[in-house]
Amino acid sequence: MQSHITFNRPYLIGTEFDRMQDAVGGLVIAEGGTFTTRCERCLERIMGAPHVLLTSSCTHALEMSALLLDLKPGDEVVMPTFTFVSTANAYALRGARPVFADIRPDTMNLDEGLLSDRLSPRTRAIVVVHYAGVSCEMDEIGRIAEDAGVTLIEDNAHGLLGAYRGKQLGTFGAMSTQSFHETKNLTCGKGGALVLNDSEVFERARNIRNKGTNRDQFFGGQVDKYTWVDLGSSYMPPDILSAFLLCQLEGRVHIQQKRRKVWERYRLELSDWACSEGVQQPTVPDYVEQAYHMFYLLLPTAADRTRFIAHLSAHGIQAVFHYIPLHLSPMGERFGANLGDCPIAEDVSARLVRLPFFTGMSEGEQAFILKTIQQFSCG
Questions:
Q1: Is pLDDT at 239 greater than 50 in this prediction?
Q2: What is the pLDDT of residue 379?
Q3: In this predicted structure, what is the pLDDT of residue 338?
Q4: Are 173 and 197 in contact (CB under 8 A)?
Q5: pLDDT tens, residue by residue, 179-188
Q6: Three-class secondary structure of residue 348 per DSSP
Q7: How far apart are CA 26 and CA 372, in angstroms?
Q8: Considering the entire predicted model, what is its pTM?
Q9: Does residue 168 sit within a domain?
Q10: Helix axes 252-269, 363-374, angle to 10 degrees
C-alpha cells in the first residue's frame, strides 16, 4: 500500500527560513516590522488594490470589517450558509444577525437569484465567499448591493489570484479578506489580510488593527503621542511570519503553475469515471479565472460519499468533507434558521468530498490517488 497521502501538505519555496533569520536579525519579530509592510505593498501590486493591511488571521480581518461597519444589535448581514464559521462569527460578535442564503448547485457559491429575497430594511452588508477559488457572479451581486444601499464584502479566503471577467477577486467589495492559513495556496502557517478598496476607511482600519490606538500615526510622525481612539484589538501579525509569507508571495507564479497542473490532471483523468458513475466535478465558468484552491467531487448520494471516503482511507488516502451549512448549526438555529431554508446547501454538504490537493503533490502520488478512485463504484 502507498504511504499515507494527507489531504494537505504545506509547500516551501525554499527561502523562508533565511527570511525569518533576517527578521530576527532586524530585531523586530513581533508586529510592525518591515516584512509586514513589504507583504502589504506586494499584495497591493498583485491585486491592484489601494490598501492592504496584513492581519493575524482571516478571521481577524473579518472581525475588523465588522468593526468598520459600526454594526448594532438588530442589524443583519447576508451571507452564504455554505461557508466557514468565521464568516458569521465576525458579525454576530458585533450584535448583528447573520442571514443565511442558499448556494448555486454548479459553483457552490451564493445564489444571486435568491439574494434579494434575503434583504430587509435592517440589512447592512452582503458577504460573498468565492468557494474553491471560483468567483461568485459579481456583476449581479454588485448591482443588488448598490441598489439596496448595502456594503459588499468579499470573504476571499479561497480566491486570492483568481479573477472575474479579468478583475482580481478581492477588489469588488468595499472590503475583502484574505487567508494565509496552512491550507491555503500561499501560507505563513496562520495569517490574513484586510483589503480596503475604500480609501476613506483606511486610517480608521489601521487604528482598529492596532488595539484601537493611533500608534501607526505616531510612528509616522502624524501625532506627537498615541492614545486610544477607537474600538480595536491586537490584529497585527508577527513580522517573523510576514517574512515567511513574503517568500510565498514572491513565489506565487511557481506555486500556481504547480497547483494548476494537479487540478487539471484530476479533471482530465477523472472525467470518464465521473461521467459513468454520476459524479459531478467542479464547474468553472469561461469568464472566471479560478485560483486553483481545491478539487472536490459531488457523489450521487451521502451513502456513496461515506463509502468513497472509507475506500480511499483504506488505501492510505485522506479525503475529507467540507462545511456543515451554518443554518443547520445550533448557533444558526439561535438566529432563527431552520432545516429546509437552504435546500441546495443541505443536499450538497452531504455529498461533497475534497480530494488531497497540495502544491508539492508528486506525479506518483496523484497517479495512485487517481487509480484508487477509478476502482470505486457508486450505488
A1: yes
A2: 84
A3: 95
A4: yes
A5: 999 999 999 9
A6: helix
A7: 49
A8: 0.95
A9: yes
A10: 30
